[in-house]
UniProtKB/TrEMBL annotation:
Transmembrane segment boundaries: none
KW Protease (keyword) present: yes
Peptidase S9A N-terminal domain boundaries: 5-429
UniProt-recorded name of the protein: S9 family peptidase
Amino acid sequence: MNLPPVAARKPTRRIHHNDVFVDNYEWMRDKDTPEVTAHLTAENDYTDARTSHLELLQEQIFEEIKDRTQETDLSVPVRRGQWWHYTRSVEGQEYGIHCRAPISGSDDWTPPVIEPATGTNAGASAPGLPGEQVLLDDNAEAAGHDFYSLGSFDVSDDGTTLLYAVDVEGDERYTVRVRTIATGENRGDEIPNTSAGALFDPSGRYVFYTTVDDAWRPDTVWRHEVGTPVEADVTVFTEPDERFWVGVGRSRSNRYLMIEAGSSVTSETFLLDAADPTGDFTVVWPRRDNVEYDVEHAVIDGEDRLLIVHNHNAVNFELVSVPAGDPQDEGRVVLPHSERIRLESVDAFRDFVVVEYRSDGLTRVAYATKRGGGLTEINFDEELFSVGTGGNPEWNQPTIRLGYTSFVTPSTVYDYVVATGELRLLKQQPVLGHYDPTLFEQRREWALAADGTRVPISIVYRKDLVEPGTPAPTLLYGYGSYEISIDPSFSISRLSLLDRGMIFAVAHVRGGGELGRLWYENGKTHQKRNSFTDFVACAEHLIDCGYTSPDKLVAEGRSAGGLLMGAVANMAPSLFAGILAGVPFVDPLTSILDPSLPLTVIEWDEWGDPLHDAEVYAYMKSYSPLENVHQTHYPRILAVTSLNDTRVLYVEPAKWVARLREVGADALLKTEMSAGHGGVSGRYAGWRERAFDYAWLIDAAGAHPSGEGEFASLSNADGGAA
């Protein structure tokens, strides 16, 4: 068997609060040195050699994903102004094609039937209308690049001009370009090094965009006049507080341009009348520490109002309405605070208002018409599901576009007709190969944490392949940070696990947002260890209830979920057969101590400030995966990272794997050399990346490599995993 690369030990002393930590692998931080490149290449070669026995299984899973996916397909068209906008995908092409087709009239709210391969409108209600226009072909833009990501996409309100921005490195720095749609030719406007989210003002004369500071924090909003030199662009807003990001947008009503500045716990919004795009933005509510709020413009009884979702003296947030001309007026409470319901957002339209919230750990959507009568919830009947609004840009639309999914229900798009209560099915994600949802069981379990807290676990498996009470190979997934919830959702690629008799489970640990704001608060800063102990409790529950056993249980987490994986590997290694950590935040203390690193100061609200607070330093050191590696029998570990990731630098998993090897752990490192935080770009490349991950997890869990599903046509006798 090939021997693993041995990283050179070059001791570096890190001294804070009278504590000395000797880091033997900090030298790996300089990715431009030949030594680092050679080491990462050697690690990739070693990982390839160690996983070569899985190549057939990887190829089988890739083909399963591909064969189940309708490769030539179309998103449900969304009306914007006088056009239906949609994205087509074509078999054999990595990226989407962004298109539009004209509406048939002002009352046309029924999405047209578009032929995905050709873009022809099969159900045109008005013959003679101009056909599809291709606005941007991502495949053409990506040609010649190993990586491609679209970060901004906007069409001027008059429909004549396209704005788009691309990243071809993976570092989330985008170049904005402006294109005349009629000719398909780019103008001279080219703005490099922007953040995502650039957009036109309603006149189409100006582009608003953001740039970053030296720590790669979006901190400045600019105004660019189309057709003028970039050097003449005007600074509109700069945020000096290093804890805050900034972004720019527009209200659905087109009445206001909006700048939002926010940290993890505090926010501030500024408005500008869109009719005066060169004017000055004014603050809605001056920022107050630990107060977050979002603003939506509404017209109620002919009066301009601002609907504000906020958490001032309302931990789960409440909704208030204030005069747009005097937003600091006391206003009136529309939806009061509830200990049971976490209010998340509000969307205002001409004739109704939509709210999204969480209840009993699940997402919900409700609406109220301006005729009164209170909220009406849009109900669904599955035990586990996820629902939310999306694709609702038009102020005067009569419908609410909804996205719905569950572990067993493919992604589904509905239009809800407010006037009648009709729920119109527009499209359900195709799953080729006779997918039968009745074969699958999804359910909710509750683990008991050490402090008595009940922690939800969502589970899905094939009923004909899993016998409750008989331990089965199981993948337990977790995240648990930033109030991000891992809601039930369908995955074509996951079927390759379920068809091999594996259980898929999500541990909804504290630090996420599934059970309200306090669920998040009790899993961050000085209570961060709750995320890790909750995950351990979920693993123990699945074992104790007979779902699985330690030799069949594997775990996965990405980014901050990778921190969760590293901490759990140290805390409870005997519970797992394997742990996959994607772009993992496994050296958090080194990163959060260095304000010069990308996004560090912003993170202090989430983790605490170990640079200036000795107690925070000691607490973070107590769980930092890198610093708590110890002599024990670790499960098999796979760390996957990206060289150009700016959110979690590749050096963290590289150092972690080297340290694990010191204590004899079977640890692999795979570095994508042309990718960012989200991994490789392109759908086929993404499928291959997922096939690699799943093959490793199947092998680590001891699941049968061929499985029992319709696509299990290859046998282990030809070289699959043992």
